[in-house]
Write a structure and sequence with these properties.
Number of strands: 7
CATH architecture of the largest domain: 3-Layer(aba) Sandwich
Shape: globular
Largest sheet: 7 strands, mixed
Radius of gyration: 19 Å
C-alpha cells in the first residue's frame, strides 16, 4: 500500500501520541447515508470509506469506533423537525452521534443533479454549532458520471456553512465505477486524508483553543451557549453606542 501519508510519525506532533503503553487511542467515526434502497450503493460507498479509514487509523495507533446513521430509518423524524422543530428521540440520538463524532463520512445519492432532499434536510435541522471543526469525507452516488461535480458544487458549500473541515478529495461513484479499480484508489485517498486530520487533532484544537472566537447563536451547541456578550458591537449599538 503506497498511501501518501505512510511512514509519518505522529508522536512528534504537539498533542499527538500513540496512547499509553502502546494502547490505541479511540476516536469516533460517524457514517451518514441517505441511501433509500436495500442494498444501497450510497451506503456501500460510505462503508468502504469507513472500513478503509479504520484500517489506516489502526496503523497509526488509533481505534476508530464506527457509528452508523441511516437517514432512511429517521426520514419522518427529519421532516417533522424541519417543519415543526420537534425533535424525536430517534433524531436526537442521531444528533448525539454527530455531536460526539471525531470525523464523519457523509454519503448521498444524487437526484435531478442535486443532493438528496433527505440528506440536506438532516444537516439543516442540526444545531449550527454541532459540527464545528469536524473533519468530513464527502461522497455521492449517481446514475451518470455527469453528476460527479455535485459533491464539489453543492455539498462543500453546505459543510462550509456548518464550519466543518472537508477533505480535499471528493468521492463520486456512478454504475461503471464499481467495476473500475480506480474507485478503490480514490477511496483510499479520501480515507487517508480523513485519518490524517483525525490523527493531527484538528477538531480538538479548534474546539478547544478557538471555540470562543466563533459566532454562536443563543442556546446553541446543545444549549451550552447561553451567555450574551454585552461588549459586542451590536449590543453597544443597542445601548446607544456606549
Amino acid at each position: 500500500m503506497n498511501a501518501p501519508y505512510d511512514g509519518i510519525d505522529f508522536d512528534g506532533i504537539d498533542g499527538i501520541d500513540s496512547g499509553d503503553a502502546g494502547q490505541p487511542r479511540t476516536k469516533r467515526l460517524a457514517v451518514v447515508s441517505a441511501g433509500t434502497s436495500d442494498p444501497s450503493t450510497t451506503t456501500m460507498l460510505a462503508n468502504r470509506v469507513a472500513d478503509k479509514a479504520a484500517s489506516l487509523a489502526a496503523s497509526q495507533g488509533i481505534a476508530l469506533e464506527i457509528r452508523f446513521v441511516d437517514l432512511r430509518a429517521i426520514a419522518d423524524d427529519v421532516m417533522t423537525a424541519l417543519v415543526s422543530q420537534h425533535v424525536s428521540p430517534e433524531l436526537q440520538a442521531a444528533s448525539d452521534i454527530m455531536r460526539d463524532a471525531d470525523a464523519i463520512v457523509a454519503s448521498t445519492p444524487v437526484y435531478k443533479a442535486g443532493a438528496s432532499g433527505l440528506f440536506s434536510a438532516f444537516f439543516q435541522v442540526l444545531d449550527n454549532d454541532l459540527l464545528i471543526g469536524t473533519p468530513v469525507a464527502l461522497a455521492a452516488t449517481g446514475g451518470s458520471p455527469r453528476h460527479a461535480l455535485v459533491v464539489d458544487d453543492q455539498l462543500r458549500g453546505l459543510f462550509s456553512y456548518l464550519r466543518t473541515i472537508t477533505v480535499p478529495t471528493s468521492l463520486f461513484a456512478s454504475p461503471e465505477d464499481w467495476n473500475d479499480r480506480g474507485l478503490g484508489g480514490r477511496i483510499e485517498r479520501v480515507a487517508t486524508e480523513l485519518v490524517a486530520l483525525v490523527a493531527a487533532g484538528f477538531r480538538e484544537s479548534v474546539r478547544g483553543d478557538s471555540w470562543g472566537s466563533y459566532q454562536h447563536s443563543y442556546g446553541s451547541a446543545g444549549g451550552t451557549e447561553l451567555g450574551i456578550d454585552l461588549n459586542s458591537d451590536l449590543m453597544r449599538m443597542a445601548t446607544g453606542g456606549r
